[in-house]
Amino acid sequence: MQLKVNGRRTGKSLLSTLTVGTLFVISVAAYAQPTPIGVTGFNRDVITDTTATSAKQFDSTNDSWFVTGTKDSVGTVHNDGLPKTGKFTSAFTNTVTGGHTTFSFASYTKSNTLFLNTATPTGTLTLKTPAKYSSISILAATANGTSTSTGSLILNYTDGTSSGPISFNAFDWDKGTTDKALSLDVARNKDANGNFVYDTADGKTYNMFETDINTSMFGGKFLEDITFTKSGTAGATGIFAVSGLATPEPSVVLTMLMGMGFVMLAVVRRKKVSSN
Description:
Jelly Rolls, 2 domains, disordered N terminus, globular, 5-stranded antiparallel sheet, about 280 residues
């Protein structure tokens, strides 16, 4: 169907206008990448921060993570820790979207990890606001594990349904070599539980690992919480952050298409007026 302006055909079809709008919506959706999801349920602080020493050990020998800019017990500032802002873009290419996930740690001065061990092998992170997601990304690592350690998770929805067990990467923080989220390996604190002793022996060899899950088959449901089970080949598993790509509501897509249609109509009208 062609458009008419002042009773004359413009040569521009409504179909082509909507096609352009559709392509615009598709391109916007393709560009979108997973962003941090606010969750509750973290039960342990394993990250020594720049203003407090409340972190507990992550592995069995008193070791913990630390934040870039933290001063050690002899007054030396170290800049090879976790990002100071608490937010970063993963270096790993998302296996669902093809882009890069943005992760955000919980407060460095409070519980910032879902810490699972033999005594507490399972735990749940609950979304602050249930929402629909087409993909979910997990940031995790294990201590006293292997380079191939994995845990399992279950996605739970507000309608009472669940996903069934899904494997997630929980490689040992010192041994994992693939799916690294941090662009550079970091160092660690050798004396958690109230102190910061920089690990000069191992240096910068520690990382966290990303898992990307296509949840488009659940796209019409509201994700409520995620239940995690520790790796069976590790002493402890830590889940540090959850991100996701929200499923756009149909009304949002329709609004974008209509908006593009009106823009194209305005362009056509302006061209027609100027040609007169």
